[in-house]
């Protein structure tokens, strides 16, 4: 082995023009950029629902209560959470690209079902498929980017990935709000989804390349932490052991899993109840669309900074600060009324989420061995996206019994509590440069 100044690892491999597999953002920039674009399309599929579907439930299908109206998020969350878990195993068994392509195939009927839905049951079916698709496509783009960049820039990679996805969520939510204001809630807002699904499937099938060899290369050069903390997490773990370590036993992995669940719990609340709160205050559909877009826009764009910042400052305290900022923002939304005050709170909520989202994923990549990292990411995303279902159920029940603003207060308290759990239980997972494999190694 010899060091090279390009900060990459390479070895001979089939499947690319040079015959080499290399780790590093610069070395894999074309594929990395392509995957950023693909994940933006994944986010757009989710964004087509953020403004319009809650209003469909209330204004078109006349659903009788908050709990009933949030059933689409409940089904989406359960489907995505379960698919995340299996997607990790499928990626390790069959490769990343086949799972990505299959996820896009599942996405194709979603906008069509939303356009043609004669009853709320069709909307539920669309969200079942959307959850399965998102679990396969978003999970795969996460793992593929981690594969490509190697250990030194995981935070940056996750920041770029999540920024693309949630910026697209925001842009699509804003666009569908204006389209719905001009043309109605159906069918025009969902034409965007048809275009996203077609383009995503085409790019994933024809242009995206497999990245599993990159993970194998990193595993071959993997260096244990100097403090010995991960010595028990050797490369050969069963699926049950990966689930146990990620969910309960390993302090950093389990702390990240519970924080991810609570983060998406409050996102499920924002998705399902915020448009209803804003509509009850007399805001137009266009203004509701602005507020629905503002939170994920700040969330998405903020990750361009926070992901890379966690590579410099560490993961733990950025996660703690982000969770506490989210709790404050939710409390403000519950306490005030008015477009501009809600807009300020949406910015704060997006900033807090931007601090948390890529950093949690990067912490999973820090701890999990490359040999079972895809499965660990799947388990983490099982818990994280299960938060959609928990949030929909909890927010709906509390809103129906105690009022919609009380539901926001309850979720604010849970978010603050989750941040305290991270502060107490989690250790710092990212150390530079002594505890990671030197990326200058070259294997010929």
TrEMBL record:
One of its GO terms (molecular function) is transmembrane transporter activity. The chain crosses the membrane at residues 66-87, 99-116, 122-143, 163-184, 190-208, 268-286, 292-310, 317-336, 342-361, 382-402, 408-427. It is a multi-pass membrane protein. The lineage of its organism: Bacteria, Bacillati, Actinomycetota, Actinomycetes, Propionibacteriales. It comes from Actinopolymorpha cephalotaxi. This is MFS family permease. The keyword Transport applies. Keywords: Cell membrane, Membrane, Transmembrane, Transmembrane helix, Transport. InterPro entries: MFS, MFS_dom, MFS_trans_sf, MFS_Transporters, Sugar_transporter_CS. It comes from the Bacteria. Its main location: membrane. One of its GO terms (cellular component) is plasma membrane. It holds the Pfam family MFS_1. It is found in: Cell membrane. Residues 28-430 form the Major facilitator superfamily (MFS) profile domain.
């Amino acid at each position: 082995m010899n060091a090279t100044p390009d900060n990459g690892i390479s070895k001979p491999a089939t499947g690319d023009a040079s015959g080499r597999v290399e780790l590093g953002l610069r070395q894999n920039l074309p594929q990395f950029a392509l995957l950023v674009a693909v994940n933006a399309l994944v986010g757009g599929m989710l964004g087509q629902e953020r403004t319009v579907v809650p209003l469909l439930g209330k204004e078109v299908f006349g659903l009788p209560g908050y709990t009933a109206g949030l059933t689409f998020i409940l089904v989406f969350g359960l489907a995505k959470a379960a698919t995340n878990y299996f997607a990790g195993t499928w990626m390790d068994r069959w490769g990343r690209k086949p799972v990505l392509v299959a996820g896009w195939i599942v996405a194709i009927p979603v906008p069509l079902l939303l356009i043609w839905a004669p009853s709320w049951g069709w909307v539920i079916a669309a969200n079942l498929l959307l959850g399965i698709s998102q679990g396969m496509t978003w999970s795969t783009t996460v793992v593929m980017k981690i594969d490509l960049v190697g250990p030194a820039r995981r935070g940056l990679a996750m920041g770029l990935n999540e920024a693309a996805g949630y910026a697209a969520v925001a842009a699509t939510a804003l666009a569908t709000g204006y389209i719905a204001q001009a043309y109605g809630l159906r069918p025009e807002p969902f034409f965007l989804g048809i275009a996203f699904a077609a383009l995503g499937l085409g790019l994933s099938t024809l242009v995206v390349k497999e990245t599993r060899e990159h993970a194998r290369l990193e595993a071959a050069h993997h260096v244990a932490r100097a403090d010995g903390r991960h010595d028990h997490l050797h490369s050969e773990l069963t699926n049950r052991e990966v689930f146990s370590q990620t969910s309960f036993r390993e302090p950093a992995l389990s702390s990240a899993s519970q924080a991810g669940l609570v983060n998406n719990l409050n996102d499920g609340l924002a998705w399902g109840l915020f448009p209803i709160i804003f509509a009850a205050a007399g805001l137009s559909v266009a203004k509701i669309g602005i507020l629905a877009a503002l939170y994920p826009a700040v969330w998405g764009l903020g990750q361009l900074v926070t992901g890379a910042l966690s590579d410099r400052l560490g993961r733990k305290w950025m996660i703690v600060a982000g969770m506490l900022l989210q709790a404050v923002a939710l409390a403000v939304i519950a306490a005030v009324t008015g477009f501009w005050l809600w807009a300020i709170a949406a910015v704060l909520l997006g900033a807090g989420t931007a601090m948390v989202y890529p950093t949690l994923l990067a912490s999973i990549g820090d701890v999990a061995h490359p040999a079972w990292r895809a499965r660990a990411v799947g388990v983490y995303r099982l818990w994280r996206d299960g938060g959609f279902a928990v949030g929909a159920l909890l927010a709906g029940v509390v809103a129906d019994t105690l009022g919609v603003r009380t539901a926001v207060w309850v979720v604010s308290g849970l978010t603050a509590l989750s941040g305290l759990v991270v502060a107490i239980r989690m250790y710092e997972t990212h150390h530079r440069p002594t505890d990671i494999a030197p990326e200058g190694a070259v294997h010929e």
